User: Which sequence fits this backbone?
């Protein structure tokens, strides 16, 4: 796991020394992603420069140094990620080419050999892993930018004047002298809806995120620099095709057969991702996904697996006890750290630089804390991310279906009346009601934050379809274009039906949209930036593309059963962990932002939300923001999520303005 940077100076007026200096400066901004080594390579003839910061995981010697050249000297690469099947590929290459020679045993060297032997696209189809890399073909004078299938590793690119820039994080692009970043109000509008900036957009005009599973090709001699003219982007793997193919060829065996098949595939994925030349462990929340990963790790390990959990003193946010019970049963070397509110809040000033783009999923704070704990013991940690998207684990996947079956037949006007009735009580009043009668409620109604969820329900009851319901459930600010001055919402994969997979079930469509939007742009961003900020590599076994392809073949009836999601995954887990240790209401990975904003964070928030400041900066309409802030302070309403969106942009803007 590393950080990569590069640029193409089309003016061809920059000396080799200057190219080297700029590349070094850009690479240095990513030292946190790669503290072990740094390298650059330039070609003055075409104005290309590549840079790399290395976190040594496989082949710790200088034989793994990057930028790396192929043996034939045709290709130069900077690579971020891991290829888990590189040993198998190496063996295959050796069988067909007896003249191959190796400098070391890094996956980067194997990638270059595979590309030299088979070509880029054919090699990509063989790679199993997470990656973002730049490949310079010196013979054809073409630069390729490539991102992994599911978007585990980040890659930004775009134009500034006569320069094509790219890198793992925006801070690297900002280090180039040609940088003149202008904030995109369209991207800001999208951010206010989703709490992240969705692919392909970035917070800056003219800078984009490379779509997962695609190759960008740029001919270095092409002087026509303009988006869509000088580069081409094409997919080599598409989640849409995988989803459609899975539904067209569903698994037809028994439940037991499906569980066995999934067990085998996940076990293979976990085994491959346990290979490292440095200490390795896993995050463990005690939930289904992380417990499954840890159980499969421990099953294949000769010694206790190191596991890590963050605990909170507030009972409603604390899952550490559940994780400790699972760890004890599995026999792992478990490490837990109970965090005080102050320790958690101390992370907040670091968030703007850490995430480098507005990002307001507040679970970013505990994610960083558990990463920091893990880094004290290991350099690689496996996580359970992806299980919800593949096996219908989010409440909306099964709750929306049940809701539509119960209310969808009603006229919209009647559903609108029910919606208004639900808002007669504030979320806080509903919470008090549910708490008072908790012991009398059925298990399905014992949810965390019931008042918030009922108000969210009220906002989607009167929609025209389940698709519209999904859009409402995944939206923070319902009309963000009225909040952002001069903003509007460009289409993205969630709103552009042309990009949707052709699926005959709305729940499957929700899962697909989560897989191609929420997963790469929220969940994976959250983990990548938090972990890499302190030089920890995070691996995600559920996102082995072969697991993804199998998951889409498994019928929905094996994922949602008896009103509960992830049925098949639960049955697999029960082979290793008793059901009683797992079954409980899902609490998520949250923190009490609402309480903190009324208490210790109040002055900080007030400074960022001051009416004059909002007016002077010119990005937001102050009135609705101030209204929500005052209502939140009074306790009348809990607007923590809406306010956190604004605060994270304000904090990011303040930080970026200093640099």
Assistant:
């Amino acid at each position: 796991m590393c950080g990569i940077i590069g640029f193409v100076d089309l003016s061809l007026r920059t000396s080799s020394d200057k190219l080297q200096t700029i590349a070094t400066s850009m690479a240095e901004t990513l030292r946190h992603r790669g503290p072990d080594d740094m390298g650059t390579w330039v070609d003055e003839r075409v104005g290309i420069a590549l840079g790399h910061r290395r976190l040594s995981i496989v082949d710790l010697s200088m034989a793994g140094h990057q930028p790396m050249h192929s043996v034939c000297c045709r290709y130069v690469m900077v690579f971020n990620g891991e290829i888990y099947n590189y040993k198998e590929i190496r063996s295959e290459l050796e069988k067909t080419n007896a003249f191959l020679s190796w400098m070391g045993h890094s996956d980067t060297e194997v990638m270059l050999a595979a590309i030299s032997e088979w070509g880029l696209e054919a090699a990509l189809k063989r790679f199993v892993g997470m990656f973002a890399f730049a490949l310079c073909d010196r013979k054809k004078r073409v630069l390729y930018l490539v991102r992994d299938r599911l978007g585990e590793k980040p890659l930004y690119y775009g134009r500034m004047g006569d320069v094509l820039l790219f890198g793992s994080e925006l801070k690297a692009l900002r280090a180039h002298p040609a940088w003149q970043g202008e904030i995109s109000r369209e991207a800001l509008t999208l951010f206010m809806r989703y709490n992240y900036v969705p692919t392909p957009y970035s917070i800056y005009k003219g800078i984009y995120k490379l779509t997962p599973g695609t190759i960008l090709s740029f001919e270095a001699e092409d002087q026509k620099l303009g988006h869509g003219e000088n580069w081409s982007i094409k997919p080599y793997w598409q989640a849409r095709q995988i989803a459609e193919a899975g539904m067209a060829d569903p698994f037809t065996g028994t439940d037991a057969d499906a569980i066995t098949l999934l067990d085998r595939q996940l076990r293979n994925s976990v085994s491959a991702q346990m290979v490292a030349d440095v200490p390795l462990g896993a995050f463990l929340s005690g939930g289904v996904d992380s417990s499954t990963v840890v159980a499969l790790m421990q099953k294949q390990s000769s010694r206790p697996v190191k596991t890590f959990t963050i605990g909170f003193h507030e009972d409603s946010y604390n899952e550490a006890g559940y994780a400790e019970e699972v760890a004890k049963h599995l026999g792992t070397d478990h490490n837990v750290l109970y965090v005080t509110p102050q320790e958690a809040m101390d992370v907040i000033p670091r968030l703007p630089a850490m995430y480098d783009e507005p990002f307001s999923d507040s679970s970013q704070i505990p994610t960083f804390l558990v990463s920091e704990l893990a880094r004290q013991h290991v350099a690689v940690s496996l996580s359970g991310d992806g299980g919800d998207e593949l096996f219908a684990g989010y409440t909306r996947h099964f709750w929306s279906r049940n809701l539509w079956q119960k209310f969808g037949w009603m006229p919209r006007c009647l559903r609108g009346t029910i919606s208004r009735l639900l808002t007669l009580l504030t979320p806080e009043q509903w919470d008090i009601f549910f708490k008072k009668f908790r012991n009398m409620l059925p298990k399905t109604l014992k949810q965390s934050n019931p008042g918030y969820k009922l108000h969210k329900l009220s906002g989607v009851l009167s929609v025209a379809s389940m698709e519209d319901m999904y859009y409402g459930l995944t939206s923070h600010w319902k009309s963000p274009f009225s909040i952002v001055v001069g903003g509007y919402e460009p289409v993205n994969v969630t709103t552009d039906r042309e990009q949707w997979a052709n699926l005959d079930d709305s729940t499957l469509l929700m899962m697909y949209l989560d897989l191609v939007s929420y997963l790469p742009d929220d969940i994976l961003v959250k983990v990548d930036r938090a972990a890499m900020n302190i030089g920890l590599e995070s691996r995600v076994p559920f996102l082995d593309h072969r697991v993804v392809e199998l998951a889409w073949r498994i019928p929905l009836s094996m994922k949602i059963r008896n009103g509960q999601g992830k049925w098949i995954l639960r049955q697999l887990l029960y082979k290793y962990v008793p059901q009683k240790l797992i079954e409980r209401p899902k609490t998520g990975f949250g923190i009490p932002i609402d309480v903190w904003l009324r208490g210790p964070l109040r002055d900080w928030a007030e400074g960022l939300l001051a009416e004059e400041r909002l007016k002077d900066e010119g990005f937001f309409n102050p009135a609705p923001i101030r209204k929500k802030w005052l209502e939140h302070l009074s306790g009348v309403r809990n607007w923590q999520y809406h306010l956190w969106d604004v605060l994270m942009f304000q904090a990011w803007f303040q930080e970026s303005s200093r640099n």
Summary: The first strand starts at residue 2 and ends at 9. Residues 223-229 have pLDDT under 50 and may be disordered.
